[in-house]
Each structure stands twice: as structure tokens, then as C-alpha cells.
Amino acid sequence: MDSLKFEYKYRATSLTDEELVELYVSTTDELLFEEIVNRYSNCIYGTAIRITRNHHDSEEILQEVLLLIAKKIDTFRSDAKFSTWLYRVTLNTCYGRLRSESKHSKDISLDDYAPYDSYGSLGGKVKSKEWSNNPYLILYKKEALEIIEKAIADLPEKYRVVLHLSDIEQLPQDEISSILGISVGAVKSRLHRARLFVRDKISDYFQEWRK
Amino acid sequence: MTTVMCKDVVEKIIGYIEAGLDHQTVEELENHINSCPECKEFVLTYKMMLDLTGKLREKKFVTPEIRNRLKVCLKSSLMRK
Predict the structure, then answer these.
(1) Would you call A118 helix, strand, or coil by DSSP?
(2) For chain A: N or C, fewer Cβ within 10 A?
């Protein structure tokens, strides 16, 4: 790589998402597209795997989304956040694939999910599955992360996507609301039930793991 | 002063950990948490879950093999454009 090309590539890495996209739309420069690929591949794949739960599908979705970016990026309105557009495109591609393969599962509602009993008490259910002092959490961080991943995979899809965007991708709730086309209140409510469900599932998996 | 139950801690957990509750509610919840081993464990494990979930962001999915296949795919598709 000659020095001019190196400097250009270096500058591309320091651009904000929106600057990068704007420059790519006006130049269609290959190095800028490469930077887009480097910057977003993992997040596209990560979103796809948590929706489809299938590595082969996720790799194809990654290719499909990047091709869409290359061909249709001019449909992106620069007054919006690029990440919002990107997540929307990624999720639409995921849902399209699930629909075409008839893998779209029926959504089970967790709206009434709660760990307490009808008297409002946790009634011994939390302590009996205690894992906060589990030494494996520190010793086997990788296994602990696999347990979390498994617990998230057990969530019904509409809660899983909110938890992924909020707690893994760390997006603000108003952006999630805009990506998914639901109210901020609905985002909050799904996130709350999703977290309660995942915490309980983790407790169950730690119980099994200890045996 | 209202009677706080485990249910209140569970339903207000997001506001509680994100410091989105008024002083009096926090105080009431904390009085309950400090005297309830169930809620103490619940809050602790809830925070640990958030911490661990956040770490999943660092997970690398796109291996060099995937990247190579991606490169080939993009090159051939975009050349046909």
C-alpha cells in the first residue's frame, strides 16, 4: 500500500459513521467501503445470529446486508443515524429469511412474566438457586458467557431483539424504538420482562452446571 | 411510609439501578433489600447478569475464514453490478 493510500485509509478510520457514509455515497471509493465492512461486519453478524440462531444463515445475512449497503446506500437519509438504518436493514433481512424458511416462531408473550408469587414475595426461589458467589463465574468466564448466550437464545424473539439492541449493542431506548417501530414504553416493558426471564434462566443453567 | 414487598423491588429494578427513582422510594426499597436475603440476591445477580450481557458485545463472530468468503462474495457480486 503506498503512503497516500495508507494515509487515506487511516483518515477513513477516524471518520464518524455518518461522515464515512456520506463520503462513500459521493465517491463510492473502495477503501471507504472496506472501512464500512470492517466497522459493521461483527455487529451485523452478531444481530443476525441472535435472531436466527443459525451460523450459516447469519453469514449469508452478513453478505446480503453488505451488498445492500453497497447498492442502496443512497437511500439512507443523512439526517438519520446510520446505525438506525443499518440495524433496520439487518433485522428486515433476518425476518425475511426466517419467513422464507418458515422458521418465524410464534411469539410467546412474557408480558406477565414475574419471578414473585401472587402475594408479591420471591418466596425462597432466588436464594435456593443462588449464583452470585459462584467461583466458576470468575474462573470460567467463557463458560459463564456461554450460559448467558444460551439464556438469551431461550427468549421469545420480540424480547430477544430488544435485549440484544439494549444490553449487548448498548443502544439508547429511543433509537431501539425507532429501529423496531414500537413505542419507548413498549421497549422498556419488553426489556424488563426479558431481563427477568434471562436472570431466572441463568439461575437454572448454573444449577444444572453445578451438578 | 408504604410497605415494600419483593414485587416492588422486582418491578422497580430498572429505575433502582439506573438511579431513576426519587429519594424516598430508593430508601424504602433499600430498607426492604437489606432485610430480605431473597431481594439482596436478586439485585446482586441482576447486576451481574447485566455486566455479563454487556461483555457479549466484545465477542468476535467474524473469523478470518468468514471474512475471506465475504471478500470473495462482495467482489464477485459488485463486479457484476
Answers:
(1) coil
(2) C
**Does the beta-carbon distance from A58 to B61 stay under 8 Å?**
yes
Nine-digit cell at A94? 433476518
* Contact assessment for residue A145 and residue B55, using Cβ atoms and an 8 Å cutoff: yes
Contact B6 A122 (CB under 8 A): yes
User: What does the H/E/C string look like for B7-65?
Assistant: HHHHHCHHHHHCCCCCHHHHHHHHHHHHHCHHHHHHHHHHHHHHHHHHHHHHCCCCCHH
Instruction: Measure Cα distances from A128 to A122, B13, B45 in Å.
Output: 11, 20, 13
CB–CB contact B49 A66 (8 Å)? no
Supply the pTM of this predicted model.
0.89
Per-residue pLDDT, averaged over A48-65, amounts to: 95
Other Cβ atoms less than 10 A from the Cβ of B48: the count is 18
What Å distances lie between residue A144 and A2, A115, A138, B51, CA to CA?
45, 22, 8, 11
pLDDT in tens, A139-172: 567 788 888 999 999 999 999 999 999 999 999 9
B70 pLDDT band, cuts 50/70/90, is very high
User: Which residue type sits at A97?
Assistant: R
In the structure, how many helices (H) and strands (E) does chain A have? 10, 0
Q: Does residue A45 carry a pLDDT above 80?
A: yes
Which single residue is written with the C-alpha cell 421497549?
A: A187
Count CB pairs under 8 A between chains A and B.
123
Q: Give exposure, A27-38, as e/b (b: 16+ Cβ within 10 Å).
A: eeeeebbebbbe
Q: Under 8 Å CB-to-CB from A113, ≥6 apart: which residues?
A: A193, A196, A197
